[in-house]
Design a protein that fits this description.
With about 475 residues, the protein is of the alpha/beta class. The chain has 19 helices and 15 strands. The longest helix has 19 residues. The protein is globular, with a radius of gyration of 21 Å. The mean pLDDT is about 95. Bound molecules: pyridoxal-5'-phosphate. Pyridoxal-5'-phosphate (PLP) binds next to helix 11.
């Protein structure tokens, strides 16, 4: 019997098992991987899951996406237990009330951003797959701050894995820098490049395109296109719904999601397609508004990236958007290939008015300005004493017309002290996880923004092969 298989949005990859899809990351035909059918939940599931603790709920949500021979129950349970045990809050992702709003706090992981939910799960999953199948994995990535530290904390100390993270030298905040460089495990290699974040991304791209090097050194990526990251995030939509609805299957809920790469909000879309009663997904962008423009006009065309106070959303090419496009275009890989080709050639994709209307039934897209973001932090703090981080503030503001929506809080405000100071006149107090951070011993190699030098450094650092 064939179980769940993974296919590419561009239709040119042989069907894969779940663990094969996780190890492949980006599909070899340039597309993104998806299950060939979306598992469905029943009202009974919803009722039963509503009271489960987070880790067990994650097991239930993820279970139908992998065959038991590929990922046995005991293994999946162990991975989820370990991934979410390192969160500082007993509920993992608590749903709280503040300022008259519902806030889903996703920032209680080791690096205080929601990316921990996915990367703690992925780190444990990678370790299992490598121990089962043998081999090694060398993760290579560039970061402007958040993703790098969450990835490092997801794989630190794990056998079979090394991680190399490039960040722009002296261009990330001191706290973000120390969150990465104070991790002293032997398998963690921080590289500060004398250049920009874009230089770092280009170097990573060049090294992945160096196919002999990529294969010889088993390079892997950890960016938000990995399917396992989406799945782990889907779990907290079910969790929040359960806490709010007490398991009444006809209770519909809206979510406000601050969005950059369309990863987090795609997880919400997946939850809805699985049968979670979601009324609206409020897609919140900052002034880098390619996604908002798409949902408002049906035209997806990129523009220059502008810096904002919510820097983790300063993106004008949303890497997960192709997954949504696949469903919007009736799961027709041929059409997706054509659309991505158009994007490459002409810089834009346009869908029909009918498709745009269909998309607008679920998604309500709002772009939030810098002033509105800071004003939202200020007024919310004044009313309730609760501090929103600037990304969360974008989501709360976008949900202005949806007072009952659950607003996803994607980072702890102390990670973005600068923006908070601009809003309320002083920085937030540091939570225990960040206290003393700047005094911790650190390790980092500073190199020129030069692909050949970075490559040589990686070769010299890894055990000989
Ligand atoms: C990455 C990030 C986002 C955007 O998430 P996507 O999955 O890229 O849409 C929002 N807020 C914070 C704090 C982030 O780190």
């Amino acid at each position: 019997m064939m179980g769940v298989r993974y296919i590419s949005t561009r239709g040119q990859v042989e069907p894969l098992t779940f663990t094969q899809a996780v190890m492949m990351g980006l599909a070899t035909d340039g597309g993104l991987l998806l299950p060939d059918a979306i598992p469905q939940v029943t009202p009974d599931h919803l009722r039963q899951w509503a009271t489960l603790p987070f880790a067990e709920l994650a097991v239930q949500v993820i279970r139908p996406f992998a065959d038991a021979e590929d990922l046995p129950d005991v293994v999946l349970r162990e991975i989820c237990q370990r991934a979410f045990a390192c969160f500082a809050h007993p509920e993992v992702t608590p749903l709280v009330q503040a300022g008259g709003r519902r806030i889903l706090e996703l920032f209680h992981g080791p690096t205080l951003a929601f990316k921990d939910v996915a990367l703690q799960f992925l780190g444990n999953l990678f370790e299992y797959i490598l121990s089962r199948d043998g081999g090694a994995l060398n993760i290579l990535g560039a970061t402007s701050g958040d993703t790098g530290s969450a990835a490092i904390h997801g794989v630190r100390g794990r056998s079979g894995i090394h991680i190399f993270i490039l960040h722009p030298h002296q261009r990330v905040s001191p706290i973000q820098e120390r969150q990465m460089t104070s991790v002293l495990d032997d398998n963690v290699h921080n590289i500060a490049i004398r250049g920009s974040f874009d230089d770092g991304q280009q170097i990573v791209k060049d090294l992945f395109n160096d196919l002999p090097f990529r294969q010889r050194y088993q390079l892997g990526a950890i960016n938000s296109i990995n399917w396992a990251r989406i799945l782990a995030q889907t779990a907290y939509y079910f969790f929040a719904w359960g806490r709010l609805s007490a398991g009444h299957p006809d209770r519909r809920v809206s979510f406000a999601v601050p969005t950059g790469n369309f990863g987090d909000i795609f997880a919400g879309y997946l939850a809805q397609r699985m049968g979670l009663p979601i009324e609206r997904l409020i897609l919140a962008t900052n002034r880098n508004d390619i996604l908002t423009r798409f949902f408002q006009s049906g035209c997806y065309g990129s523009a220059e990236v502008k810096p904002t106070v919510s820097p983790s959303m300063d993106i004008q090419r949303a890497s997960n958007f192709e997954r949504y496009l696949y469903y919007l275009l009736d799961e027709d890989a041929q059409q997706v290939r054509q659309a991505m080709h158009d994007l490459e050639q002409s810089g834009q994709i346009t869908v029909s008015a009918e498709k745009r209307q269909q998309a607008a039934q679920l998604f309500h897209a709002v772009a939030v300005s810098e002033e509105e973001t800071l004003e939202q932090i200020r007024s919310f703090h004044q009313q309730s004493g609760y501090l929103l981080d600037p990304h969360t503030a974008v989501g709360v503001r976008a949900a202005f017309d949806y007072p009952d929506a659950i607003c996803l809080a994607t980072a702890h405000p102390a990670k973005f002290g600068d923006a908070v100071r601009q809003a309320i006149g002083h920085e937030p107090p540091l939570p225990p996880a960040l206290q003393g951070m700047l005094d911790r011993p650190s390790r980092c190699t500073i190199l020129a923004a030069d692909t050949a030098q970075i490559k040589q450094h990686i070769v010299a650092t890894l055990p000989p092969r």
